[in-house]
């Protein structure tokens, strides 16, 4: 074939116009795209070679070589993969076949800046070369064809390209980029290595560069990128070195990977110094194919509480790095998980927007969420510290592997338990599984180890609800007056002290058929736990107390929604509760502290008609002061502050004096 000039398909011409006329914030991705194509070409040869070993010719080792020529201002990426025939070069490099790139074309907005940004982030395969080159020469020979059947393809990225026959001894493809002036920084081994390490380290095939040596290098500044020597003094040595790790850990079979290797890999992707608590590595097959390698860290990062924090899962497509922090891959409440997801189905140029919409991604997200939950369930099952009597109690620890898991769930929970609770409000599909994973302190355990199942297993005869209380601190929860009657009757109450508890519990109304009941909301209803005699006594006391109650309501009408007699108190004179559907005073306080609007609801004051102080009210000359002291003390007891602390102090002092 003699030299011919052919026109690009209209779509290619349009794309090239954009690529060559835009400024990129992220030029360097061209290298990722070209190395990825080279890697694909090697994969294809490997595949075809399965049935036809002759295709390997005399070079069985597949590799990519990156070279540059400072004088000629060219950068060349050479692979010894499948290569292209003349017709293939015309077809593949002159039209857009790839569905991903077509998709991408469909998304172009016409706004040059926005479109350039899109290319800069995600690349457009081979055509990305024109981001840095004003001319590209491709020389190729398909594996199995004669050396005389090679092809040279040349284009400046405008309307057409040239093709001609060449003789090429080596099979495979060289992409020769004639760099534009503004891209000459890529004529530098250090720069190239840096970009390759960033994007292509996990390409499973070796990427080679020729070693260079300093000749007569003069030391100027030891801290600069050239090791302090005058640039220009580098000479090639003729020796080649592999500059990537050349092995995507997650693509190797589990049995070939040691725990140390898993831990090392975790450190490189997470920048965490500590070894992970556990991990799961699986190849998922079915409608969507992907590999997941997911880690649970041992320590929470300092910015865990930032819900906008970047997610820790990296997305790869066919071993090519696509993006960090792909938040579409896991729900926000699992933002502590680190790892890699490598999809076989997604297009290489998948954008964030596309990720959100993709059905494959949804299925990856569901699968990965389930995987994380199973990892946690497995840890929980093997943790003796979580009390064992419950329905989800400890299984027998038999193997060494089981022993290694001992205590890990407690450790995990201390770091990430509170984040996990966000899932109750975020992931309805997994709410039940999540509820089983929760642990709390209780009136029977200071340690945060009680599961709902443990609690249920210990419930009293006739008890119909799981009781809990939320407070700022464990001490405040434990000493809350609202617990008094529960303590007296020996009923366990879960003590919740995480800031998210109140919010999260809004989404969980029952566990395994048993309702959850806050002891600080509504009137206490101990149901069958209260005997008839007690009920009667309470009713009588309330009746006798009615006139005082009316006076109390009047005195406190600005502060309390209602005043009523309660049986929940034993030692304390009074406490505050909120209406059943109301926001707890603790949550309202938290919102206010965070500078947010909280509805101005007034609490209900409940008084203990048996208490000496309350008995004193009747006929007291200090009635008004006593009433306000009762209210303010109830507020203090639950960690709040009187509206007018000075007035409170004055009243107490007056009485003391
Ligand atoms: P994609 O690689 O996603 O299909 P590209 O625009 O990057 O899209 O490349 C178009 C086609 O050109 C490829 O599908 C492949 O057939 C061919 N090609 C590109 N680079 C090479 C290469 N290094 N070796 C062999 N074929 C290649």
TrEMBL record:
Subcellular location: Cytoplasm
Cellular component, GO annotation: cytoplasm
SUPFAM superfamilies per record: ATPase domain of HSP90 chaperone/DNA topoisomerase II/histidine kinase (SSF55874), HSP90 C-terminal domain (SSF110942), Ribosomal protein S5 domain 2-like (SSF54211)
Signal peptide boundaries: none
Keywords assigned: ATP-binding, Chaperone, Cytoplasm, Nucleotide-binding, Stress response
Keyword ATP-binding: yes
UniProt cross-references to NCBIfam families, sorted A to Z: PRK05218.1
Biological role: Molecular chaperone. Has ATPase activity.
Subunit structure: Homodimer.
UniProt record similarity statement: Belongs to the heat shock protein 90 family.
Descriptive protein name: Chaperone protein HtpG
Organism per entry: Acidovorax temperans
Gene label: htpG
